[in-house]
Each structure stands twice: as structure tokens, then as C-alpha cells.
Amino acid sequence: MSATEQGRMLADAMESFHNHLRDAQRLIDQVQGLTPQERADGYAYLMGLMVNIVQSAMANVDPIHPQFRRGQDTFSKFGLDNPDNLYGGAHIDDTGEYRIRGTRGTATDFLFQIIAGNPGDGSLATVVSQLDLDAIKFEPDGSYEIIVSREPQPGNWLRSGPGASLIVLRQCFGDDWPHQRKGEILIERIGAEGTPAPVPTPEQVARRISEAGRLLATHVRYWIDFNNNMVGPTPVNAIAKPWPTVGGIAGQFISAGKYNLADEEALVLTFEPVTARYANILLADLWWFITYDYRDRQTSYALPGQAWQSGDGKYRYVVSKQDTGAPNWLDTCGRPRGTIFLRWQGVSGAQPQQPNAKVVKAAEVRSELAQGDPVITPQERRRRIAARSEAISRRYGI
């Protein structure tokens, strides 16, 4: 291919990317009944998703020289990202063997998955295998090594298979954020250690730019449809009966609902306790499947360690614009309607049940709480949010 042809190919790839970006914007613009704030949220979501997908499609995609890169963060979000997770991913191919080395850190839950396909590229992709906290063997100092291969290996083994293209790591900080620390993680292809990485050719760069654009529009379309199909049918000002997850983490239960509240109203959710390694509840927007600000607003709680459990054993959450002083207040961030989402991981014993839900005046919330539930003062709330902010800064910082 001549230099002129290569230049034209690269220009065409950029034009294709711009066209896909415009297609993604049109998908957002076509949603009926958006308020200006909801449209602004949609555009911010699109910008963050673009950052995420461009990096995923173009940065460290050589499976001979893999590297774990951070997934979603406080800006680049999609698919109801978990506020308690630090996501990481590394590109592989299904012919190679890989060595993962790292340190445990103090995460509440910790698991690897091998994925075939691309989550959001028309599906949730396929989970080839999973290795979680219960199965990983750690050294006394918290270090570990995992071999990724098709054939079984002694020690920690993560099974690869046909179509395997991505290793995903979730470090889940579901306890006391300010005192939890992330672990380190490295990956190398066995037999390729120390070899020089090739410079991407113009053809490869063009393909990656075009693929980034295609994935961007496909992701936006997929998650709008997924949201409509999964959250759309769920009740308003209530939570659906929990169900086993499809895709994502094996053995996980999830549930969802919507809220639609006036400024002076509150939604009180009462849950029976569940024995689980980890669980959480969060608020997200109604349309784009992105979480509200969890760094500087109280928009999520994790179990164990964050939510208040009443003396009768139940958990009561209050969804409202106003801070009523309830110990488990979920801040709507001024958005009168949105999504409520829940996860339970490592459930043992009884499965999670559908909670009781009741809309009351914000001034009447105290009468719906259990005797002995504390009142959280504005000063204490600020202290808690400051601790969240510091913890998230440590998790994503340098």
C-alpha cells in the first residue's frame, strides 16, 4: 500500500469514528421526554464512554505484551458500574499462556474472569472461566501467582478457551473504604518476556480507530436497550424481586427498581438481612445506566461495613433529595427520578427477598425507622462524605 493510500485509509478511519460518534449522540437525542439535566447526563455519559472505549480499543491491545489497565472510574462509566469496585482489564488471545502476579491488598471481594467477546458489543459477552477469592491461594505475605492457559496447571489456574480475549479483575472494597488498600497486579505472556513490542502499523491504527467508533455507537445502543428491557419493567418507588444475574459474576443476585419523588417526599426501603460475602445498593440515572456521584455524595452503601443495621436485624434505606438524618440516606442529587440497583455476591443460606417500600413525606421519615436508629447530624454527614472522597481519591489516584 502506497503512502497516499495509507493516508487516505487513516483519514477514512477518523471520518468513520466521527460518524459513529454522531450516531451515538442521535441515539441519546431520540430518547423521549428528557429533561435538560437528563440530556446533559447523557452527553457526559457519552464523553466518558468515549474515553473508556478509545483506550480499550487502542492502548495496550497487543496480546503478546499485555498490561492491566483501569476500567471504569468516577468519570468514565457504563453498565451500572459498581462504586465499590476497582476494575482492571488486560487483552489476551486464546492461543497464549500468561502469568499473573500480584498482591492481595485488603479488598472485601476479589475475582478474575476470562471473557470471550466484548461486553456491550451486542451482548454481555461470554464468561469462559472465573477465579474468585474462595479459590485463590495466597502466600503468607499476600502475594499470589496465577497461570492462564487452556491446559490445567498446578496451583492457581485460570482456564482459557476458544475466543478468550480479555481478562477482567474486580477488586471490591465493600467494607470501610478509607482503610482498604488496592493490590498490585502484573501480567506477562509466558515466553515473550522482555521482547520488544512492535510499532503499530498505519493499517493497525486505522482498524483500531474504526473499531473504537463502532464500539462506541454499539455500546450506547446496547445499554439503552438493556436498560429499557431490564429496568424499564421494574416497579416505580419499589424494588423487584431479586433474580440470579445473567452474565457478569457467577452466583450473583441482582435487583432493581425506579424512584419518582417530589422534593418533599422520601422512599423508605426495608430489607431482611442476607448472609453474603458482599452486597450493595446504589442510585443511578434513569436512562443511561450510570451511577450518581459516589465520591462526593452519599449515593451508595456496601455490606458489610457501611450500612446501618437496625436493632431488629433489618436494613432501612431512605431515598430522598433532602437529608433526613437517616443513617442509610441515599442522596438523589436533585434528580426527581432515577434507578435503584442492588447486588449480592457470595450468598449463603436464604436468597435475598423483595423489600418493603413506602413513600412518605420527608418530614415523616423518622416514624418509619426502627427504635434506636441514630440521627446523623450535618456535621457527621460531612465527615462521612469526606472519608468517601479520600478513599476514592486513593483508589483511583497516583
Can you describe what's shown?
The chain is α+β, with helices and mostly antiparallel strands and about 400 residues long. The protein has two domains: about 5-225, no CATH class; about 235-395, Jelly Rolls (Sandwich). Helix content is about 25%, strand content about 30%. It has four helices and 19 strands. The chain has helices at about 5-30, 35-60, 200-230, 380-395; strands at about 70, 85-90, 100-105, 110-115, 125-130, 145-150, 155-160, 165-170, 185-190, 240, 245, 255-260, 265-270, 275-285, 300-305, 315-320, 330, 335-345, 355-360. The strands form four sheets. Strands 10, 11, 12, 14, 15 and 18 form a six-stranded antiparallel sheet that branches. Helix 2 crosses helix 3. The longest helix is centred in the middle third of the chain and has 29 residues, at about 200-230. It is globular. The model has no long low-confidence stretch (mean pLDDT about 95).
List keywords for this structure.
Jelly Rolls, 398 residues, six-stranded antiparallel sheet, 28% strand, 19 strands, alpha+beta, 25% helix, five-stranded antiparallel sheet, 4 helices
Give a brief rundown of this model:
This protein has 398 residues and is α+β, with helices and mostly antiparallel strands.
